[in-house]
Please model this.
Amino acid sequence: MQGQAQQQAYDRGITIFSPDGRLYQVEYAREAVKRGTASIGIRTNGGVVLAVDKRIPSPLLEDSSVEKIHKADDHIGIASAGHVADARQLIDFARRQAQVNQLRYGEPIGVETLTKDVTDHIQQYTQVGGARPFGVALIVGGIENGEPRLFETDPSGTPYEWKALAVGADRSELQSYLEENYDEEADLDGGIALALDALASVNEGSLLPNEVGLATVDVETEQFEQFDYDRIEEHLVENDLLAEEDEDADE
Model:
């Protein structure tokens, strides 16, 4: 009983390390990320691709209200996995940082700088009593000095740079798929195809346009662009990944 009580004390105290050097609340936040639907980021020669699994839980839900891809600045996009409300708070913070940088220095913020600003903010919530960590992971992708950059933020406040990554549900399977199929010479269309193929690999081999989110940041234009339903459907058809609509409700 004494050992169990000691364990609970470390569970409840975000600012207290356990004897084996762990912050349990941060680990629980990582578990919250795993409960969110998957998001994928891919860096290509032509730019950055962000793709998300939206998985609409009810036909009565407006699919446009499920927001997992966000514009942080003209040249930076963010995809999330985990608690949506936590993601919105961090994305609002990222947008403010981007605008402050533009006003203060007269130039767009760097992708790495923005990511580290966000992770510094996340890390503060692992040291302050009375607050909990953010239960969300972000994929931050954009163009910096003409080069595509792709980063992940972790609930501990650690930034990682990737060529391709997945966060959220089915991360291990998606990451294995990306490792096996990633091509460093791929262009933007190749990155889109890989992202959709990866999502389809954990969704019975096919996808519906309204259950997928897709966005890119092109190297040439350095502009974030979020795809609409029709463009997503075009890419699904092109890659032979379009699922057939369930017609049971019409019969």
Remarks:
- The CA atoms of residues 12 and 25 lie 7 Å apart.
- Confidence is low (pLDDT under 50) at residues 247-251.
- Residues 22-239 form a domain with the Glutamine Phosphoribosylpyrophosphate, subunit 1, domain 1 fold (CATH 3.60.20.10).
- Residues 84-105 form the longest helix (22 residues).
